[in-house]
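Reviewer 2 asked us to include a model.

Predict the structure of this chain.
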Amino acid sequence: MRCIVSPSADPVVNLAAEEVFFRNGKEDILFLYSNSPSVIIGKHQVTLAEVNPVMIAENNIKVIRRLSGGGAVYHDSGNLNFSFHKTVADPAKTSFGDFSEPIVKVLKTMGIDATSNARNDIIFDGKKLSGHAQHVFRNRVLSHGTLLINSDLTHLSRALKRESGQFEGKGIPSVRSMVSSLSEITGNTISVESVIQHIVQHIQQENPSARISTLFNEMIAEIEMLARTKYSTWEWNYGYSPPYRFCNSIDTGENTTLGCELTVEKGVITEALLTGNYISSGQLKGIENQLAGLRHSPCAIIPFAESVLPENRGVAFERLLL
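Predicted model (structure tokens):
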């Protein structure tokens, strides 16, 4: 086994590295990394359905789609990600427990009596410490998860909480859970680096031949290319979303309302219907026509709303369309 500790905090680079290790790795790998603030969504999710779009835009929080399924998670410098890559004889005979158990054992050595539940989460006192997801291709298994150590749980909650709007489609919604962190449990500040040391020590005890590395070495060029051409693109992070219908309505005050129904395919609005008396019906019809063909994401909607209805009136449209 090879244990690689990422030298990067860029979620785009680290998710690209996961895919390269998974597809091209010839050995068993444990990849450990910690990202700057970001929301990582499952492969089959509708991006906007999983985040607070205004909050992530205001705080420059990246939203990135990963290779595996499952729900959305929040990453920051207080969260450690563990990523197992293994070649197996029969993927059907592997389980989440095969990969979460080493982490549970490490936590027990730290005095934290954590367990795994039926949903493959690592929990303590009923609260979630770690979520887990898998991706399988032929005989190669990627099994990865988060571990909340001293994350900003307030930011986590806000980033993953939508305030309004309904999504209809085949996207896989996240299952929300009560969460906790290792530092919150112990009452002491625990560093990501110290947990990495505990995990590496456990791996070396279980696998005396394990090699420890902090570099991507021969794979760095491929990782950088994949980060640039896939994981940093709108087409993957937003456009890969399954088709959906988005409905929303807001009270704009002074006895006026706004409503919308958007049909979205590959992240792009194909049809728009606007209702309400906030502005004239003629203006609404003109905006409907302009919305068709626009990307349904903060980077497109926010400047659009400000251009068609400047100042505070544009803010109402941002809230409505996102």
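The chain has a mean pLDDT of 91. Residues 192-206 form the longest helix (15 residues). We have added this to the supplementary material.
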